[in-house]
Amino acid sequence: MMGFDSMAIFFWLFAVVACAGALIVVVSRNIVRAAVGLIVSLFGVAMLFFLAGAEFLGAMQLMIYVGGTVVLLAFGVMLTTRALFLRMSTTADQWLVAILLVFPLTVILIRAALSYSPSHSGRSFIDHPADKSSAALVEPVTVSELGMALLGFRQNGRSSESTTLFHGNQGYLLPFELISVHLLVVLIGAAYLARRGVPETRASADSKSVSDQDIGSTD
Amino acid sequence: MFSPITPIHYLFVGIVLFVTGLICLVTKRNIIAILIGVELILNAANVNLVAFSSPVLFAEQGAPLRLDGQIFALFVMILAAAEAAVALAIALHFYSRFGTVDVDRGDNLKG
Description:
The structure holds two protein chains of two kinds.
Chain A: H1 2-27, H2 31-51, H3 55-80, H4 92-114, H5 143-150, H6 173-196, H7 198-202, H8 208-218
Helix pairs in contact in A: 1-2, 2-3
Chain B: H1 7-27, H2 31-52, H3 66-98
């Protein structure tokens, strides 16, 4: 019981951190502060991942998001703002659209979350081999299990010694390969797009007709 | 308040992240701020996936999405990284063309 209590305390702590970071992102007019709020929020979410037993995902969240994506965003901020503390005001009709869109959606989402109960969570769809024997036994998801699933060997529960593959449970080799190629193509495309913009920034003093010509020639 | 943590608690964190991301997406005019909103929304999805695949939160029953949820969350992270790279390249291009990152200024296609 003690373990559950400490988990509750840490959950509330990091949930507050994550939500506060998200609120900073929305409230701040300053883009640099919004990026810092995003870092805080992502850190809180990573800690929530650790608490939920997804240690590998938490580490990946810290490395990819907090270490990679946010740094990328910070570079974007630095490369695209003339004044560092740039402010852009939001018009009243934009706030109106936001409220009209967000309020009903929030109500729907809260009702959906409250209507969820773990007792009937669709387990009838899942062919779980160790259904009765593994009760009340927390079996952590190991990294090797995740890696094997990505390579196409998916074990459903470590208690099952059988390495037989269930129909439709053969792992994620094809999505893994697809996403690898996708990432490669995307990064090459991003590098190409970003580099193509470089000469134009130098020639930004030129007339706009040059850039219009550029659109026509590339398409 | 200090009752055992259930997946519903995680769902509410996901709701907060999603709603704030959506507000960010709608109300901000800076293209980088819109990107930050998209990142928040993707993280909300990840929180839900991890909650439903958690072996800790479903200690009595075995997590319904044990492995699948975490792998999907990994895929979401990779896609978010790719999306950020491309979107930043587009933002740089936008900036070099229009001299600003205000998305309301890119109205060349307006009839």
